[in-house]
Amino acid sequence: MKRSLSIPMLIGVAGSFFAYPAAAQTTLDNYVKAGLEGNLALHQKSFDLQKAELDLKRAKTLFYPQASLNSQYTLASGGRTQDIPIGDLLNNVYSTLNQITGASKFPQVENQKIAFLPNDFHDTRLEVSLPLVNADIHYNKAIKKELIETQRADVDIYKRELVKNIKEAYYQYLQAGKAVAIYDNALALASENLRVSEKLMQNAMATKETVMRAKAQVSQVKASLITATNQQLNAAAYFNCLLNLSLDAPVSTDSTLFEQVNTNLTTGVDVPARREELAKLQSAQKVVGTSIKMNRSYLIPKLNAFYNIGYQGYGFKFNSDQFYQLGGLQFKWDLFKANDNKYRIRQSELDLDALHTQYKDVEQQLTLQVRTAANNYRSAIQTMQARADEVESTQETYRFAERRFREGQALQIELIDARTQLTNARLNHSLAQLAVLTCAAELERVTATYNF
Fold it and tell me: Burial letters for 294-326: b for 16+ Cβ neighbours within 10 Å, e otherwise?
């Protein structure tokens, strides 16, 4: 009596879906680990995560003093000038003083002309600045920190998809190998049929037509075997590509995965406990929320401290006459920007509302994925059980047809038909087993139960 399966029974820890043999479990796990370590696309995702971590470190540096050494030397000729009539102002006074004193203690001076562009002038200084009050750098640090979680969730999303693809590719390779074995067996049966037909013709118990039909069956099975072998080679190449291995690298085969599928399912929840897609959206919401706070911080003034020490003057000299120090505070408070800050805040609020709506939609879609995957898994198990019964029936049918054909009580067409049905039943059963394993990998993916 077959056991009925309900949806709540179909969800649970993905590792308990099947009773894997120890060797098979180890082999498959090793391949998955190798894929997680060697996949090139995953490495690219990891680079983005490393860049996000470096962005956070850069954001932290804004809290520390910034120092720079600057030097400027200028040569100039021409340009604007400013006349200063020092001679016109002082020479008459100096002349009167010389007359009164009877001496030439006060010489005549010339009018001066000062160029705006300094010639042979240098300014070499060490500049140090430190933010004292700046809300932007605090919020910028919080945003960069949260973006790391966003990138980490993105990496985990790809990891889960990669695990599913590796498992499905491995199952596909195993099924292709099983198809080759089935056609090998079919070729042996067709070859035996040809041998028996030739013997019957020698004994005048069959016609040449019977032998030619048997030869045609052998050729047909050989063609199918060639196709199946090619599919196995392609499946191996795709599997190795996911693992970043040589496309013609040998693949260890654990056919026991197909032979020991366990239909005794565990109970569990029918919604994903935690999906990285939801975590990514939650992180994005936090980023936008922090951006809103940063936009509102325009009400908080900015205050920076600075200190300069260096040398300045005509001629490239470093002496006490050119030495100087300069320090102070810089204060900035944006009072009016024609409501630009308010518009930016409103845009961020709309982005946050859109993310909330997207979160609900994604959550519903993920729940649908779980339900659909569970239904597919249940259907695949039922189909596999039906295909197993079909194999048993066709095996018995072929056994009876072969015995009757040897005894001359059945036509060759009956034997050919029984052999074809047996081969198709075995292929369909292997495909049903593949469907169960593939649906299990999908269910493991949508419930996010694989542990990295």
Answer: bbbbbeeebebeeebebbbbeeeeeeeebeeee
